[in-house]
Amino acid sequence: MRIAxxxxxxxxxxxxxxxxxxxxxxxxxxxxxxxxxxLENSGPMASGGAGISAxxxxxxxxxxxxxxxxxxxxxxxVLSAAGTEVIVGVSGKVRDAIRAYNSGELxxxxxxxxxxxxxxxxx
Length: 123
What we know:
The protein is built from three helices and five strands; from the N terminus they run E-E-E-H-E-H-E-H. By secondary structure, the chain is α/β, with parallel strands linked by helices.
């Protein structure tokens, strides 16, 4: 099993990035072993379509879930179609978010929690 976490840094001690499409990094993590790979996201510099592009990248990594602060409707649709659980409202350190996921404290969202273009101009 693998999950993805939006992050503002490239380690498990980074903060969860509150933006999905415009996060700095995705950490693709095995939640049991904490082995991970880091993917730099091109979304922060994109003029448009950042959420869709990021969702396609994450879905292509065949993760079961994405942990993030916020997810807009376009990205949510792509992730849902790929069978990826979207878990929003996540904050704190990546390591702590994974711990919360493993203990069952986090629940999948039934819809996006922000509007289109929410992350533009943030951070």
